[in-house]
Specification:
Among the domains are: 2-56; 126-256, Endonuclease Chain A (Endonuclease, Chain A, 2-Layer Sandwich). It is built from 12 helices and 8 strands. It has helices spanning 2-22, 28-40, 42-52, 58-73, 75-87, 95-99, 101-109, 127-139, 156-170, 189-197, 265-284, 290-293; strands spanning 120-124, 144-149, 174-180, 201-205, 223-227, 231-235, 258-262, 386-389. Helix 1 packs antiparallel against helix 2 (28-40) and helix 1 (2-22) packs across helix 3. The longest helix has 21 residues, at 2-22. Mean pLDDT is 72; it is low at 306-386.
């Protein structure tokens, strides 16, 4: 009997290996790790794969389907960008786009990465500076505040930010907050409910439920704020006193990086936020399939990619006031390479920036020379759109 059980387990384990090898849709490194676990620990490996691979429980599948929904909704924008870039590539005057055109095209079609611009970028390496500017930007919000953080503590900086969010919500600003249910497990849930009472919305990502420990493995590590759809902060700093170097338990000084962006790159970050926001509904309400998940996305989901909201021919000034036309879908932002490329290196080296020194575009050319490669010296950093906060 024991021999039958042993050989049956081995046979099932081989089937698992075959499935991972030929049918698993994850990157090769992750597949290799699973195969290694299955071969070294046949029974234990199968149990771990069932629990944590995301292929056997519909919760993670539903959330993945909602992520695909966002890609479908931006498909037409990507198609337009590809057509514009590939029709006459030799006539593209922007040397950065021309140099990286194959990479940009690949990102558009394979990585679903829209071609976006960064009008200005400020780099923070200290939490004190970041939180000071973050609070100022939150105070200035007029339309919307979208925040998404793995850790959101109920400490001095957490209370300060929550107070601002509640006040802005009462003023009529659309305030949405996503916190990770595991990362923020030490924060009382009533702390977040005060935002709901003020008229905003706070939601836990992939809520941990009693008797369902499998959700522990699917966490949200984003640290993102989008304000009024035109400026954003993204990086590695959560909401907590330790990141501001005011928690005495954390020594030496906490060092992490955040970047503040303006330009159409902000819109891709907003899409990332909204994808997570609506995927929470999809998971909680057992949405099945991409078509059903679409109902959780408003019809204006892709309208954030504002087209031709600046008329005429004006020169780029590094503040988002670049030239555009009523017929040009991408001429009013100053285009950068795919993926919201922020020109500049943290170590102070040279950078490729698209924000300053641009030449105004014509009403017929959506990719006028607004983003030529520039060498950024140490002296120029203070004047350049890529600013360093140390």
């Amino acid at each position: 009997m024991a021999r039958i059980i042993f050989y049956s387990a081995q046979a099932i384990n081989i089937l698992f290996v075959i499935f991972v090898l030929f049918f698993e849709r994850k990157e090769s490194t992750r597949r290799f790790i699973w195969i290694l676990l299955l071969l070294i620990f046949p029974v234990g490996g199968m149990v771990l794969y069932i629990l944590f691979s995301g292929n056997f429980f519909t919760g993670t599948k539903r959330m993945h389907e909602v992520k695909q929904t966002a890609q479908q909704l931006t498909k037409e924008v990507r198609r337009e960008q590809k057509a514009t870039l590939t029709q006459s590539p030799s006539n593209i005057p922007n040397p950065v786009i021309k140099e990286f055109l194959p990479l940009i095209t690949m990102n558009l079609m394979e990585g679903k990465s829209l071609l976006v611009s960064t009008d200005t970028a400020i780099l923070y390496t200290r939490g004190e500076d970041f939180f000071n500017d973050l609070c100022q930007e939150l105070e200035s919000a007029k339309v919307s505040i979208f925040m998404e953080y793995f850790i959101f503590h109920k400490d001095n900086i957490g209370k300060r930010i929550m107070e601002i969010l509640c006040r802005k919500a009462r003023e009529g600003v659309d305030v949405k907050l996503i916190y990770d249910d595991l990362g923020s497990i030490a924060t009382p849930r009533r702390f977040f409910r005060q935002l709901n009472k003020a008229g905003g919305e706070a939601r836990p990502f992939f809520q941990i439920r009693i008797g369902l420990p499998l959700t522990l493995n699917y966490r949200n590590h984003r640290k993102l704020t989008v304000i009024d759809s035109d400026r954003a902060f993204i990086g590695g700093i959560n909401i907590g006193d330790e990141y501001e170097n005011k928690n005495k338990r954390f020594k030496p000084m906490w060092r992490d990086t955040v970047v503040r962006l303006t330009g159409s790159s902000v819109l891709t970050l907003q899409i990332n936020f909204l994808s997570d926001w609506y995927s929470i509904d999809a998971w909680n309400k057992h949405t099945k399939g991409i078509e059903e998940a679409k109902k959780y996305f408003p019809s204006s989901f892709t309208d954030f990619f504002v087209r031709a909201d600046v008329g005429g021919e004006t020169g780029g000034n590094g503040n988002g006031e670049t030239g555009g036309s009523t017929e040009n879908p991408y001429g009013n932002r100053g285009v950068a390479v795919s993926g919201a490329d922020v020109g500049g290196a943290i170590d102070g080296g040279t950078g490729n920036s698209n924000a300053n020194g641009g030449v105004g575009g014509s009403t017929e050319n959506p990719y006028a020379n607004r983003g030529a490669k520039q060498e950024v010296s140490a002296k120029e950093k203070k004047e350049h759109s890529l600013k360093f906060r140390k």
